[in-house]
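Researcher: Good morning. I'm working through a list of sequences from a screen, and I'd like to move beyond sequence-only analysis. For each chain I'm collecting a predicted structure so we can compare shapes side by side. This is the next one on the list. No need for commentary yet; just the structure.
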Amino acid sequence: MRTYITNDGELIDWLAAASSASSCPLNKSSSDIADEEIALWRMRLQELPSHKNPLTELRRASSAVPWIALLGRKVLAVPATSTAPERMFSSVGNIMTKKRARLSCDHLEELMYLYEVWPKVRE
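Model: Good morning. Structure tokens for this chain:
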């Protein structure tokens, strides 16, 4: 089995070899395709250096390993802050009080939507 080292100059060789090796016929199951992509991704001998952006590397390899690239984009796209959800929970806490304990989820969602949109509509 031929191995490929992922340096700046040799990454294209790995991608070219992986692209030619990965064929996706219609009769393959999703687990077979995932196993094939994992095997192609593991052909790399060196780990990704800490100074490189993993999303850039996954974008470059997306033609050879599209499922891994999609999974990487979803996992690595987690927002860095939680201010928006915290603000929303605070607003929900102001709406859902002891006196409004019987408020249904649908009505709470509608009230939150109106709470967010109404100031923009008034402008």
